[in-house]
Design goal:
By secondary structure, this protein is of the alpha+beta class. The protein is built from 6 helices and 8 strands. The longest helix has 53 residues. Keywords: Glycoprotein, Membrane, Signal, Transmembrane, Transmembrane helix.
Length: 253
């Protein structure tokens, strides 16, 4: 009986061990399945995030709204042919004949709006001008710097280095700012008519010389009574012909 009882106990233990082993195998499979199922959404999520990051929408940078400096000189909706040269770009034809009319193809610069004779907006147009360089223009077509350091009354007449700029409505070839040698032509505000009148009426007292800023000569005439009248007559002639001028070397007005 005891042996039979022991045999039954061993069978029970073997059954329990077999049950536990099968349970552990089943739990391991379930864990691997759960890991696989969980890893698949994560990989899918990673792919979606990667695709999202690589497919980021492209935003075009906004264009600059800054107004170019040349727009100050460019009238809006004016005639294209009357625009200043700073408002357009032209194909220069240097093979034109000097002094002859020439036609140039031009295009307005960005942000510049102009119209033709029929009030139609256009970008490409032509300009008719005389074939000549800017430094060959008439003196009325450009403005030059003035000098007050040179003498206008001298022999020979003095010149000075001036910087000239072509006026906006004038078109020409080459640089629009150029150097040029000019005669001294500045004035200090002295009038020739006033100097002559003083020389005739009060020249004996040196009033004409005082007016022109020549104090030493004025004092000489004052204390010599106009050189007994001879100096007075000579000054009337010299001022009348313009030989005697202001002491600062400027021109009469």
């Amino acid at each position: 009986m005891a042996a039979l009882w022991v045999l039954r106990a061993l069978r029970g233990l073997c059954g329990v061990a077999l049950f536990l082993s099968q349970l552990s195998i089943l739990s391991g499979r379930a864990g691997s399945l759960m890991t696989t199922k969980l890893s698949q959404p994560q990989s899918t999520l990673a792919k979606s995030l990667t695709s999202t990051s690589t497919n980021t929408p492209y935003f075009k940078p906004a264009e600059s709204t800054e107004i170019p400096p040349y727009m100050i000189k460019c009238p809006s909706n004016g005639l294209c042919s009357r625009l200043p040269p700073d408002c357009m770009t032209c194909n220069t034809n240097y093979s034109c004949v000097y002094g002859k009319p020439a036609t140039f193809d031009c295009k307005v610069k960005p942000h510049v709006h102009c119209v033709d004779e029929n009030n139609h907006e256009q970008e490409n147009f032509t300009i008719n001008m005389t074939c000549q360089f800017c430094w060959q223009l008439a003196t009325s077509d450009y403005v030059c710097t003035n000098s007050t350091n040179c003498m206008t009354v001298s022999c020979p007449r003095q010149r000075y280095n001036a910087t000239c700029t072509v006026q906006d409505h004038i078109h020409c070839l080459g640089n629009r700012v150029f150097p040029k040698m000019l005669y001294c032509n500045w004035t200090g505000g002295y009038k020739w008519s006033t100097a002559l009148a003083l020389s005739i009426t009060l020249g004996g007292f040196g009033a004409d010389r005082f007016y022109l800023g020549q104090w030493r000569e004025g004092l000489g005439k004052l204390f010599s009574f106009g050189g007994l009248g001879i100096w007075t007559l000579i000054d009337v002639l010299l001022i009348g012909v313009g030989y005697v001028g202001p002491a600062d070397g400027s021109l009469y007005i």
